[in-house]
Amino acid sequence: MRFNKLWIFTILCSVLLLSACGKEEKTVEEYKPTQEEIASGQQYATVYKEPDPNEKFKDRYMLDLTGKDVQYDLANNLSKDFFLSGTAEICDYYNYGYTNEKSYFCVQLTPFDGDSSDSWYLYFDREEFQKIYKVLLIDEFYIRVSAYIPKNNYIQGQGNMAVVRRAELMEEKY
């Protein structure tokens, strides 16, 4: 009797094993999205947009302040670099702590986001910015700069006057 139970158990296990390993192949169907799913997914697609050149300039030189930030709080922003962009034309305004015409030339910059009351008198080193000087002698030009107000040049009440550290001529207004 014992032999019969063992024999029956072995046959049952073999049948179950053989039926589980049948010849039928199971394939995984490839998922294909419907047109509606594709269309709804497009609303999340991102389009690469070239960064604004002014933002690239600010990022490159780590400029957090703008001319507007500094303009209304000159005394608390001495020797801090700030960003300006606008229309530049050469001028001859040498006043307060900025009287060294031999070393610097003066440019009046009217910011794109302001008017003539927001203008800055910027002082460019003559040797370092010779090319910009020659261009501005011909005509006004769009420009972006990194500038600062030196502590030793600052005189209370001076208005918007600063020394340029870096500058780029611009082909168009941003």
CATH architecture of the domain at 53-170, by name, is Beta Barrel
Count helical runs.
Answer: 5
> In percent, how much strand structure appears in the residues?
25-35%
| Order of neighbouring strands in the sheet with most strands | 2-3-4-6-5
End-to-end separation in angstroms reads 98 Å
Question: Which residue ranges are poorly predicted, with pLDDT under 50 across at least 5 consecutive positions?
Answer: none
Mean pLDDT reading: 85
**Biggest β-sheet, characterized?**
5 strands, mixed, barrel
- Rough outline: rod-shaped
Number of strands: 6
Give the SSE map:
Elements: H1 2-20, H2 35-41, H3 53-60, E1 65-66, H4 67-71, E2 82-91, E3 104-111, E4 120-125, H5 130-138, E5 141-148, E6 161-170
Parallel strand pairs: 1-2, 4-6
Antiparallel strand pairs: 2-3, 2-5, 3-4, 5-6
How would you characterize this protein structure?
This protein is an alpha/beta fold. The protein has a domain at 53-170: Nucleic acid-binding proteins (OB fold (Dihydrolipoamide Acetyltransferase, E2P), Beta Barrel), CATH 2.40.50.140. The chain is 28% helix and 25% strand. It contains five helices and six strands, in the order αααβαβββαββ. A five-stranded mixed β-barrel has the order 2-3-4-6-5. A hairpin with an 8-residue loop joins strand 3 and strand 4 (120-125). It is rod-shaped, with a radius of gyration of 36 Å.
